[in-house]
């Protein structure tokens, strides 16, 4: 078997091989090109696995993204995508060979993190990826959506100053791109959406050309600072693809706007952030039904010291982390010292406080999974009392990480 990088001339073969692996057929591009989810593939970052007779039997790609870390740092990451092996060539080591080859290429680019969305949860843990952000769905019947009565000293239920304007998706592409970019720079766990994604209309709504209405929120000066992309379907259900807001007040204003839409029985918020305060703003706390709570962004560390010193920290302390990487056959013991929001991470011979797999380090890296949870689950071993509590305090971020971007 041969694994080789691809060029632009390989796009057709790559797309056909990928779709065959999943038993699907490629979509037809929209008029003028683009408009399909795969149109933003970066062929200089993609791989083809070839059988002995030269036939393509597997694919793996990567996008060039920026990831927002706790503390606000923006770092380049490889967004792994389009991974598939033909049914006739599975369980022959093809997937593992492509993953190992790809991780080597990511390191050669100087990227110390890799991310992906896992089609099946059991697959990518063995390659060192851990679930690092989570998302959920919130369904709210309109008749139960009355706002809570303001409490003494409370401000959370006050709408943001400004206005909401309804536009069609085709009318506001630049607004969406600008608002999303400001949002993702402040939200830990968020990924960039490169301009070419918007230009090619690649991905899911509201990036894609699928018809949508967009409620655009403008601040008191008329500057767009939030939007909600939505459509109304069967059973009088208004479904919000995503809500992007500069702060909680803007989010609340957009939520109230869609919840007050005429001829709608219920509103479904897809990709509703965990621990968001909206449910507390209803008079009936049970009005919002949470469902489809699931993992979203998976993270893999390629350079443990580089990754740990790149993010910001909200507490001081130190830990000795004994980290194994079974897939790459690597092992390291690191002294993590945090002072005033910054970390130092150096090799050490000291006895470890925690022993963990690189996939578990990926899960806790953004602060979306508590180390103590993985200790209780038997994934991480704590070597002394209190080590898990110290790790919880260190890895917790100032905001819960959340990722909306689909790739």
Automatic annotation (TrEMBL):
| Pfam families named among the record's database cross-references | Acetyltransf_17, Acetyltransf_9, SCP2_2
Q: Which PROSITE patterns match?
A: GNAT
* InterPro entries per UniProt: Acetyltransf_17, Acetyltransferase_Eis, Acyl_CoA_acyltransferase, Eis_dom, GNAT_dom, NAcTrfase_Eis, SCP2_sterol-bd_dom_sf
Q: Reply yes or no: does the keyword Disulfide bond apply.
A: no
Under the heading Gene3D superfamilies, the entry gives: 3.40.630.30, SCP2 sterol-binding domain
The positions annotated for binding acetyl-CoA are 83-85, 91-96, 119-120
Tell whether Transferase is among the UniProt keywords: yes
> Can you state the subunit structure given in the record?
Homohexamer; trimer of dimers.
NCBIfam families per record: PRK01346.1-4
> Which family, according to the similarity comment?
Belongs to the acetyltransferase Eis family.
Q: What is this protein called?
A: GNAT family N-acetyltransferase
What is the protein's species of origin? Streptomyces tanashiensis
């Amino acid at each position: 078997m041969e694994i080789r990088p691809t060029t632009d001339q390989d796009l057709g073969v790559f797309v056909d091989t990928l779709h065959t692996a999943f038993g699907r057929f490629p979509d037809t591009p929209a008029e003028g090109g683009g408009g399909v989810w795969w149109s933003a593939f970066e062929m200089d970052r993609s791989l083809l696995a070839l059988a002995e007779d030269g036939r393509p039997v597997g694919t793996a790609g990567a996008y060039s993204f920026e990831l927002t870390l706790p503390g606000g740092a923006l770092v380049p990451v490889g967004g792994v995508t389009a991974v598939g092996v033909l049914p006739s060539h599975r369980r022959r080591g093809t997937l593992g060979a492509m993953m190992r080859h790809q991780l080597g290429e990511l390191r050669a680019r100087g990227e110390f993190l890799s991310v992906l969305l896992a089609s099946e949860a059991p697959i990518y843990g063995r390659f060192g990826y851990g679930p690092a952000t989570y998302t959920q769905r919130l369904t709210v019947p309109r008749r139960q959506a009355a706002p809570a009565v303001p409490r003494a000293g409370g401000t959370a239920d006050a709408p943001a100053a400004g206005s909401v304007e309804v536009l069609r998706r085709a009318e506001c592409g630049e607004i969406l791109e600008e608002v999303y970019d400001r949002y993702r720079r402040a939200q830990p766990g968020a990924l960039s959406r490169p301009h070419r994604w918007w230009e090619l209309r690649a991905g899911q709504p509201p990036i894609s050309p699928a018809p949508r209405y967009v409620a655009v929120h403008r601040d008191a000066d008329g500057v767009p600072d939030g939007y909600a992309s939505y459509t109304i379907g069967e059973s009088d259900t208004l479904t919000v693809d995503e809500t992007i807001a500069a702060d909680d007040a803007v989010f609340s204003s957009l939520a109230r706007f869609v919840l007050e839409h005429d001829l709608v029985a219920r509103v479904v918020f897809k990709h509703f952030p965990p621990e968001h305060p909206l449910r507390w703003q209803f008079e009936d706390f049970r009005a919002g039904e949470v469902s489809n709570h699931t993992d979203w962004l998976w993270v893999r560390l390629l350079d443990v010291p580089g990754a740990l010193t790149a993010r910001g920290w909200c507490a001081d302390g130190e830990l000795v982390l004994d980290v194994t990487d079974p897939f790459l056959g690597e092992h390291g013991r690191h002294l993590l010292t945090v002072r005033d929001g910054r970390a130092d991470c150096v090799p050490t011979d000291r006895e470890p406080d925690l022993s963990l797999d690189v996939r578990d380090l990926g899960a806790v890296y953004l602060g979306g999974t508590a180390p103590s949870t993985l200790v209780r689950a038997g994934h991480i071993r704590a070597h002394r009392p209190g080590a898990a509590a110290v790790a919880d305090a260190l890895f917790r971020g100032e905001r819960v990480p959340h990722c909306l971007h689909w790739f």
